Amino acid sequence: MRLLQLVDVYYCLISPSLYLHRGCTDILCCILFILALLGYFAVGILAWSQGDPRKVIYPTDSRGQFCGQSGTNLEKKPLLFYFNILKCASPLVLLEFQCPTTQLCVESCPDRHLTLVKAKLGTKEDHDYYRRYCKEGVDFAQIKKTLNSFEILSLTVTRRCLPALGTMKGGVVVVGNETSFDDGQGITVNATDVLQASKKSNLAVEARQVAMRIFEDYTQSWYWILLGLVIAMVVSLIFIVLLRFLAGIMVWVMIVLVILVIGYGIFHCYMEFASLKGEPGADVTIRDLGIQTDFSVYLQIRQTWLAFMIILAIVEVIIILLLIFLRKRLLIAIALIKEASRAIGHVMSSLFYPLLTFALLSVVITYWAITAVFLSTSNEQVYKVFNNSDCPYSRDTCDPATFNSSNVSAVCPDAECLFAFYGGETVYHRYLILFQFYNVFLFFWCANFVTALGQVTLSGAFASYYWAYKKPDDIPAYPIFSSLGRALRYHTGSLAFGSLILSLVQVIRVLLEYLDHKLKGANNKCAKFMLSCMKCCFWCLEKCIKFLNRNAYIMIAIYGKNFCTSAREAFFLLMRNIIRVAVLDKVTDFLLFLGKLLIVGIVGIFSFFFFSGRIRAVEDAAPSLNYYWVPILTVVVGSYLIAHGFFSVYAMCVDTLFLCFCEDLERNDGSTERPYFMSPELHEILSKVKKQEDDQLQLRSQLLQFNYS
């Protein structure tokens, strides 16, 4: 017994410090992350106290009152009227969900064009009609003719008065039957200008209409969507279990099925393309059709199915060519997947860990979305003093409710308290844009931290399997919980450090996308070229950082060192085994990607036929929907996430085992004094890769000798 204990101690000494004493790493970054989270909670509480998300959905006037709200004086005024609809063309509408002009709740929308000058010179009926679109308490006789407000023929669109726009032959835009009209100040306004303003003011309205239809589709089909996701989870679980016992057979079955599924997709697209030949309107191009909220319209034209067919054919050819060129390496990758299956078989709880990652990411996304909505709706209506004569209070803020009884009206009789803009004069409103930026940045940081936590937890569990000399006796009882505890207790700072670096790059990419959007209308080709180059460089940088972070987290899980040291050691370890990386790691990733593609393809095809009503046996059971692509897309995306969750465990296992046996090779030599921790199967895989390395080196040397000769 004493001899066995000494042997166990010896193997602990020659194996990495997985179970030895660890210390906290990157403490400063851990403190910074905790402070950032506290600040994030403070920003959320502040936004929730200032914002009102009802402003996005329901129309509000310039005083912040909801039109048609029961129990108020606006109960009988359910519609919103814009004083100057042309100001709605401002890009601020997209950021603040508000149009920078005075807005008023009214009983009905205007049914004719009328300016203030015409109303003053018109009949009593014109006076009364114009007065319906003035603020309460305003003396019609005292209204200045310089007031930029006019009424045009309007229609009610989701409780908002928007111009009754139309088009004549030739695409000429008209309001009513007029192509232009007077704005009351002698300026002619084209109907096209009104169209642009209406589009901006109606942006949130159209989004709300589509959102309501989508929500209605979800209420009609949620149980079928849930059933589809359950089927995807069952199929993924069955596939993983079969992969555990029949890895070689399942990989070849997976490859064949992927080729067949994509081939069927090509065949189906061709049949749809051929069936639409000669149909009226089927030859319309996607460019002529434009953007449509009802995506089923695109399925009625031939060009859509032709595009699908070409895309699937290209994917099919690429996959077949990759399989041909990688045919020798596939056998080695399959053997590595078999070894990963054994590891997962001893750590079965790892298959359910992605559920925790998904739950944490859901919390992060929900908190970010709610905070963003509250921040966007926390702007207030700002009123300022306007007058024609000298006044010491000119441009000062004012309250329209108490303005007539204030000192300002006594000192400046001709002064008025008019709406100026949406914003605020407080410190909160001055720094609102910084709060929005902070919300985006912390979203990336928290999401990347959750992902990093999952990677360290899984790699720690699989490393405990690899470095157990007597498998499975030396594996901890609860490897996932043990690894999660080590990660949170000792390495929170390192995870925060790695996720911070990645978040900075992602935020820069978001800013570049914003600049690209702003420069779309510009003609500066040099600026666009430079911006495109920067976007490409930062995309590559993000991919490199993700790769380095992933391997650094594996080294952290094994040795417990800080992030920079782990990243450096992982990088040089991979560089010393670069051929093995190409032969084993990336080929295995490709095979696992085919598995995800297969599950998504199978579930997606069945959901398409079901929700489109093409399966006659269950045609009556299919729900009636506005957009049948909504549940299909939800099931496809959900299936991919579910399959990715299961297969990410395999990918993390493969990466961990790969780094572990590279480290094992450098630490040990296979002798009795320093035996390998790898299994005989892994040693066989390594021997094959080593032989390929020697063959490639021999070929290179022969080529060099030939060139010199």
From TrEMBL:
Catalysis: reaction(s): choline(out) + n H(+)(in) = choline(in) + n H(+)(out); ethanolamine(out) + n H(+)(in) = ethanolamine(in) + n H(+)(out)
Lineage top rank: taxon: Eukaryota
Membrane association type: Multi-pass membrane protein
GO cellular component labels: mitochondrial outer membrane; plasma membrane
Key word Transmembrane helix present: yes
Gene Ontology molecular function: antiporter activity
Entry keywords, A to Z: Antiport, Cell membrane, Glycoprotein, Membrane, Mitochondrion, Mitochondrion outer membrane, Phosphoprotein, Transmembrane, Transmembrane helix, Transport
Localization: Cell membrane; Mitochondrion outer membrane
Transmembrane residue ranges: 25-48, 222-243, 249-267, 305-326, 351-375, 440-468, 590-615, 627-647
Main location: membrane
Keyword flag Lipoprotein: no
Family of this protein: Belongs to the CTL (choline transporter-like) family.
Function: Choline transporter.
The name this protein goes by in its record: Choline transporter-like protein
Species in which this protein is naturally found: Gouania willdenowi (Blunt-snouted clingfish)
